[in-house]
Amino acid sequence: MESTKLSPLPMKACCAACAPAAPQPEADDHDHGCACCHDHDHGHEHGHDHEKREIAIMAISAVLFAIGMVADERLAEIMPNWLVIGIFYALPYVLCGFDVLRIGAQSILKKDFFNEFTLMGGATIAAIALGQLPEAVGVMLFYCVGEFVQERAAGRSRRSIKALLAARPSIAHEMLPDGTTRDVEPDVLGPGSHILVRPGEKIPLDGAVLEGESQVDTSPLTGESVPQRIAPGSRVLAGTINLNAALRVEVTTAFADSSIARILEMVENAVARKAPTERFITRMARWYTPAVTGIALLVAVLPPLFGLGPFSQWIYRALVLLVISCPCALLISIPLGYFGGIGAASRRGILIKGGAVLDSLRDIRVAALDKTGTLTEGVFEVNAVLPAPGISEAELLTAAALAESRSNHPIARSVLRGAQSRGIATDDACLTGMEEMPGMGVVATITTSSDAGNTTATTELLAGNAALLTSRGLTPVEVNIPGSVVQVAKDGKVLGALVVADRLKPQSPQAIEALRHLGVQHIAMLTGDREEQARPVAQQLKLDSLRAELLPEDKAGALEALGPVKNTIFVGDGINDAPVLATAGVGVAMGGLGAEAAIETADVVILDDNPARLPELLRIARRTRAIVWQNIVMALGIKGLFMALGIVGLSGLWEAVFADVGVALMAVLNAARAGKIES
């Protein structure tokens, strides 16, 4: 079975060597791991034993080094000086620096001279040669402590996305014709297969419930904590959890096309799609470290040649520059910031396809939204029953339900549901003819027999819009209620009218208001629905503009007319929304009920179809962007300051450790905040 893997976050892409020698396509960026990483740290997935080993090494080294620094003179009185140096300085240096020195040497053999390990190893060895052994040990020890803490902090920021992997079902109970079951991998089964899902198990494939009633925990996919009740006929999604009772499910989608598989693929691709800021930092690393190394060489050579001091003094200052120069803080924390933002969104049921999308969301000024399935639930219901004088509601509903009983139109289905919900049963056995009138409604013929069975009577029913009745010379009922109006007539007599309307999602008003508070200047509705259906919704939500009766290609043009495309966001769910989703600066698909084409085209997928996720999405994007730039300013500012101080001799290797490891750690901890965004 083919497994789905997340691309590891490049935690130690902290030097020029981490970047390919030549620019690569963006989609391949994740394939270029850092050549200077610890070889045990592929993806930084440390085992528990390895973590304990690292802690033990750091603890022993720290204790020995502290004893040596505090009791150096007393130790020299009771043991030879070489033994003091060996136990309390050399041993901690080797324990902490063995991997650094080994990988640095391997890098040099590969002609990779400008990475974190060669710089750190070379600087500490040179410091030892200059008689600065305690400083060399301190640099290596604090470097190792900083690396360990960085990795722990980074691990917390990756958990939310890695949790999606845990949602991947690993087994399915296939139901065989003889009533028994066999355990198979989910990707072996295809549409039409029957599976058994026991209480407490993950649903392995998308399907429809055939038998059983239960509740399903959808939080692994949507972030929704309230369980969903399901019964025969209900749709269930792979990766969700069956809570209460056994279910018999018919598979409707192969595993490769299932919800959980698509989600995992989107998340994997999201990690690989770098934001412009990330790409800039990667390009900068290609010249930054060599440039600083060149400056350090000049600092070591030129001042002594001009008589400004001994070589040892300026070589030491050059070493300080080398330690400071490594751009760890930038190349670690910036990808981690975007990764944390993507993770924070995923916990809310929002899938963002890459850091570039987060950057684009920062500048959104115009929001355009589809109506059906986005702002409304896409479920039509009878909101009003308006019988003509002398006609009862039951008579009106019975006639309307009979006329619409064999139509598959959404409004026809809603009329049937409305009649049933009011206790009116519909028997279409007497329906002997039904003609669809395009753009108007239906004409149905009902034939009834006398009790004796020797005579028959034929009745004509009309159910449709005002144009249908007018075409038959009838006067429609005047209706002033928003919605789609179904006029009903029987044998040339108007019985009344029904008002059918799409139900507004309860979160839509709050979502629109929140978008305005976030600085969205213009909010529009772009829909293919008729204007008389769309306008009441637009008015209720106080939208700035409305364009109705749009064809798919018209929506893209209507969006462009609202302002610069790069500053627009479009939200939709249907296959007809795919072109405009691709056109918008950021396309958002309502993924729970949305069409496959819309989900694939969009930059963001909202899994639970909740419009309240839109303002959350903007808040996450803006917070993430702010954190990224905080790290850029902090890292460059502090490093620049300490470089200047190092050149004039006001900072030594101890300060350089802070400027490198300390600043990197601060940046990582700040970046981890992106994964804890509260919206």
Number of helices: 21
Number of strands: 22
What would you report as the Rg, rounded to the nearest angstrom?
34 Å
List the strand order in the largest sheet. Answer: 10-22-21-20-11-18-19
Global mean pLDDT: 77
Task: Give helix % range.
Answer: 40-55%
Percent strand: 15-25%
Q: Globular, elongated, flat, extended or rod-shaped: what is the shape?
A: elongated
Derived from helix and strand composition plus strand pairing, the structural class reads alpha+beta
The major sheet is characterized as: 7 strands, mixed
Domain count, please report it.
Answer: 4
Topology:
Layout: H1 48-70, H2 72-78, H3 81-109, H4 116-129, H5 133-166, E1 172-175, E2 181-184, E3 194-197, E4 207-211, E5 214-217, H6 219-222, E6 228-230, E7 235-236, E8 241-242, E9 247-251, H7 259-272, H8 276-305, H9 311-325, H10 328-346, E10 350-352, H11 355-361, E11 366-369, E12 376-387, H12 393-404, H13 410-421, E13 431-437, E14 441-449, E15 456-464, H14 466-471, E16 484-490, E17 493-504, H15 508-517, E18 522-526, H16 531-541, E19 545-547, H17 552-560, E20 568-572, H18 578-583, E21 586-590, H19 596-601, E22 604-606, H20 613-647, H21 653-672
Parallel strand pairs: 11-18, 11-20, 18-19, 20-21, 21-22
Antiparallel strand pairs: 1-2, 1-3, 3-9, 4-7, 4-9, 5-6, 5-8, 10-22, 12-17, 13-14, 14-15, 15-16, 16-17
Helix pairs in contact: 1-3, 1-5, 3-4, 3-5, 4-5, 4-9, 5-10, 5-21, 8-9, 8-10, 9-20, 9-21, 10-20, 10-21, 11-20, 12-13, 15-20, 20-21
